Each structure stands twice: as structure tokens, then as C-alpha cells.
Amino acid sequence: MNTVLVTAAMTTVLVAMALGNEHLLRSTEVASGVNWIYLPAGLRLCYVLVMPVQGTLAIFAASLIMASRDPGLPWALVLVSACVTAAGPLLARAVSMRLLTLRPNLDNLTSGMLCFMAVLFGLFSTSLHQAFYVAIGRDQAWLSMWVGDTLGCLLCLYLLKVATSALRRRSNP
Amino acid sequence: MSELPSNNAFVRFVNLMRAISVLPAGVSLDPQEERVMQELAWRWGLGEAVTVLAAMNMMPDASPSTVQRRLKTLRAKGLLSFEPAPYDARVRHVVVTEQGRAYFTGISELMHRAVGQR
């Protein structure tokens, strides 16, 4: 029950962020679902780092919700799209943990590793998405998607940094 | 005493937030660069014009080449510049830049705040 609630909450936050990104950063949109800045990418990375199982499920569910709004995409493809979206962060996590010899409790995680992971995450996520787009004959936007995911990831991490330091200052002026 | 398991989400969250909180922001100095800046601040405070050669020998516990490397990284970070002396172009002075002044002002404000909290 707890897992379901946590996953539902995580999904809601991710969908809200994706919708917010869609509306606030409309000017940076290149194609449907492809932005030069995609902030939810950072949240996806945090999700799979902190709660790999619930995080992946939340990413899958949020992607399902977002992709189902596309009328041109049949249900089977919506499902595949959600799987692709969820697989990217998980794959990036697994590869980073191996490459950076990151421990499961993240106690040796450094800011440099996080930046590296943001780039790697963008690479995996974009490559999987573009492979999917090629398979269904959609327009490709590899560069803008990779930049969008990486930039969004870094921006999201920095927003978290600013927010936490502001909270800390407020509680300890 | 029981320890938290390594797969604890809270532990991972804390470690993630710790890494996020130290993400590089603006100019960050390593401890040796900080020491070089402190030594220079002390000399500048006395009104000394510090040459690069004098700066390289100002820290008895660090080799001149180490200090020179730090001077170069501080120059690359925009906190210092090397300017030729008016009396001899071969002699170069270590001069604080606007960014360097802002660095010292920031530290000064922090000290004022810390003292004010007492």
C-alpha cells in the first residue's frame, strides 16, 4: 500500500512538472514532447537514484499519462513509449553505478558524478527515444532532445540546490 | 546498535542532497588557493606591492612551484591578475581583480554576520 501511495505521489509530481514545463517553456519546444530545456529529466534522475523501483514505476505511469494525450499514438505505442521513457533513467543509473563505482546507498556520490550522470542520462534517454521515433517513422530531433534532457537535468539539480540552501537559510538565519 | 541498511531510501536521499548542495556554483577555491588568497590579503592589507616572485616564496610550508600553480589557477578564475611593475617590465605584480575584491567582500560579510550572531 505504501509503495502504491509513494508511486502515485511521485507520478503526480512528475506529471505536474511535465505539464508545467510544457506551458512555461513552450517557447523552447522543438517538436511534440521535445524541448531545448526539459526540467522533468532532473526529477527522473533523482527518482531512480533514491527509489529505483518506485521511481521507475512513477516515470512509466507519468509517461503513460503524458503520451496518452497524443491522439496520433495508438495505445500499444503509448505503452512502448512509456517503457522507453522508464528504461532510460534506469539504464543510465546502472551504467553510472558501474562506471563510477557508485555504492547503492550513494555515500560516495559527488557533485561531479551528478553532472556526469546528467550527461549520461540525457544520452541514454535521448538515444532510446530517438530509436523509438525512428521505428514509428516520426521526426527525429536527437540533438535538441539530448541538450534538453541534459540541460533540464542540470537546471533541476541547481534549482534543488538553490531551494535547499534557501530553506536552510530561512530555518537558520 | 542497529545500522540503517544500505538500500534505505532515506540514506540515499540524504546522500543525493549532500551531493546537490556542493554542486559547483560560481568560483570555488580549493584549500590551498584559499590560503594563497589569505596570505596575499594580509600583505595587501599592509600596503605591500607583492611581486609574483615574492608571492611564490610567501608560504614557508609550500614549495614555490606549488604556490605558482595556485597563482595561475587563481588568475584563471579571475581573482588575480599579473601586471608589470612601472619601474621594470620584467617584474610582475600580483594584483587583485574586481572579482577578487568581491571574494574578500563576501568573506568579510560572512564574518560580520558570524560575529553578529554571537
Overview of this protein structure:
The complex is a heterodimer of chains A (173) and B (118). In chain A, strand 1 (29-31) and strand 2 form a beta hairpin. With 173 residues, chain A is mainly alpha-helical. The radius of gyration of chain A is 16 Å and the shape is globular. Chain A has helices spanning 2-24, 40-50, 52-67, 75-99, 111-135, 142-171, and strands at 29-31, 34-35. Chain B is mainly alpha-helical and 118 residues long. Chain B contains five helices and two strands; from the N terminus they run H-H-H-H-E-E-H. Chain B has helices at residues 9-21, 31-45, 52-56, 64-76, 98-117, and strands at 80-84, 92-96. Chain B has a two-stranded antiparallel sheet with strand order 1-2. The radius of gyration of chain B is 20 Å and the shape is elongated. The two termini of chain B are 37 Å apart. The mean pLDDT of chain B is 86. The chains are: A mainly alpha (173), B mainly alpha (118). At the A-B interface, helix 2, helix 5 and helix 6 of A face helix 1 of B.
Quick structural overview:
The complex is a heterodimer of chains A (173) and B (118). With 173 residues, chain A is mainly α. Helix content of chain A is 75%, strand content 3%.
Key features of this structure:
heterodimer, A: 173 residues, mainly alpha, two-stranded antiparallel ribbon, globular, B: 118 residues, 5 helices
Helix/strand layout:
The complex is a heterodimer of chains A (173) and B (118).
Chain A: H1 2-24, E1 29-31, E2 34-35, H2 40-50, H3 52-67, H4 75-99, H5 111-135, H6 142-171
Antiparallel strand pairs in A: 1-2
Chain B: H1 9-21, H2 31-45, H3 52-56, H4 64-76, E1 80-84, E2 92-96, H5 98-117
Antiparallel strand pairs in B: 1-2
User: What is the oligomeric state here?
Assistant: heterodimer
Number of helices of chain A: 6
Q: Helical amount among residues of chain B, as a percent range?
A: 55-70%
Question: Strand-residue fraction of chain A?
Answer: under 5%
User: Can you give the mean pLDDT of chain A?
Assistant: 88
Described by the principal axes of the CA atoms, the overall outline of chain B is elongated
- Tally of helical segments of chain B: 5
Shape of chain A: globular
Largest sheet properties of chain A: 2 strands, antiparallel
Binned strand content of chain B: 5-15%
Total DSSP E strands of chain A: 2
Structural class assignment of chain B: mainly alpha
In N-to-C order, the SSE pattern of chain B is HHHHEEH
Strand order of the largest sheet of chain A: 1-2
Rounded to the nearest angstrom, the radius of gyration of chain B is: 20 Å
Give the neighbour order of strands across the main sheet of chain B. Answer: 1-2
Query: Main beta sheet of chain B: strand number and arrangement?
Result: 2 strands, antiparallel
Compute the separation of the termini of chain B in Å: 37 Å
